[in-house]
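Q: Could you write out the predicted structure for this multi-component system? I'm mainly interested in how the pieces pack against one another.
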Amino acid sequence: MYDRVATAVYNLSPVWVQNILCTLAGRRYLARRYGGEFSRWAAFYARARLWSESRLYDYQREQLAQLIRHCFETVPYYTKVWKQAGLCPDDFRDVPDLAKFPCTTKEDLFAASDSMISTSVAGHKLLKFMTGGSTGMPLPLYHTPAEIQQHFAAFWDRMRPGVKLGDRYATFQGKEVVPSQQKRPPYWRENRAANQRLYSMGHLSPEKLHTYAGSLLNEPFVYYQGYASFLLVVAEFMAENGLTPATPPEAVFTTSEQLTAETRKLFEETWRTKVWDEYCQGEHCALIQECEHGNRHAQMDYGVVEYEPIGFEGDQLLAELICTGLIPRAVPRIRYRVGDRVLIKRGFECPCGRPGPVITAIRGRTSECIITPDGRKYPHISLIVDLLRNVRRTQVVQERPDEIIVRVVPFPQFTATDEEHVARSFAERIGGGIGVTVQCVTDLERLPNGKVLSIISRIPGHLDPNRQSRQVNESPKISVQSASDGSSADGHTAR
Ligand SMILES: [Zn+2]
């Protein structure tokens, strides 16, 4: 109720007031992320970055031993499940012993509910976040403020090469700060506390794209960050019209979705920059860093990552990620199946020398776009999914330009009111008069590899990153320029 009133008041405010409100909210985020324990952990991760593989391995063993004892003694879910399996904390002596403990799935988290929360944090402040992600499964997340600060310390140490906190940046990530009924620019708002401009994902119609592009031409952003699918809509427009920023960004940081090679090339050529694709999750289970040689490396001081073989793509191993984050203690996830897969180049050592398997690609975060009746591309639904009630999973299917079908896998308590709420949430956030039909289903459509896409588009000519990029590569309008050596980024979980 309060949120609806606050949103209504925000939407009725003039742009300058909305900028102030965004800045005030930004100030709260800054304090939450970068206050308290942040500096201490930033110093820790700067040191740990230089550790040898054996030192990192020792750190994992110590942390896992503490974590498993902590879970056994204070997390009711693990106490019960592990006792039933005949396990106790002493069964863990070294990192390979982790495999004795059962995996945790998203379904387990739903079923476990509050029994997944450690009793050690009773009475302490827990921050709640929602994550829908590319799999359309809304999941509440809880972290202590100290855990958030530790996470961001690791994140900034590893995932933001070449830029620093406080640099001017542009976010293309779907946080809707511009009311959908607004018909004139600016289609962005300013968070001056963080030196951030937030672009609207709800106004990407062809006739409005020139205002997005125009705003990037002369504004010297140090970096852009956001969803590849959102950035792609803007980059394509700029490439087709031969537009390049006067001051190219040092880096573009993409997150949450699969980034194709073609899309990366388009960004780097259009914006004369360097793209870094980042991987982490709201659950804080793994941090996978892209290195200067284009390979990826799981950060051993952040989480323990196991790779369950599934098959091969060419000569590379396809494996499912099973992750145990070393930071979370409030809601620990032991051997968590995050739902993503990676390709591993076996028997290969990356020239950068970082330890662990060399990951060449992350599979399974593909995202397509919804096309609205007024011709906009709406690329990402996770922020809508986060709003839904009593819904286990969500998938949008579009077969006609004026309508989407929202498939939901409901919880038993899902009611007709919840169903109306689903329809209203999608219609209001996407806008443009799109029709919404809600279908309750028992399971969602899957790709041959088992992955569930959050958006399936069956409209001829829909935005498919590969198709679009091939078109772009054939386009004579694109000028090919060398990519700069810039770098870095932020942005991802708990934004
Ligand atoms: Zn490397």
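A: Regarding packing and overall arrangement: The mean pLDDT is 86.
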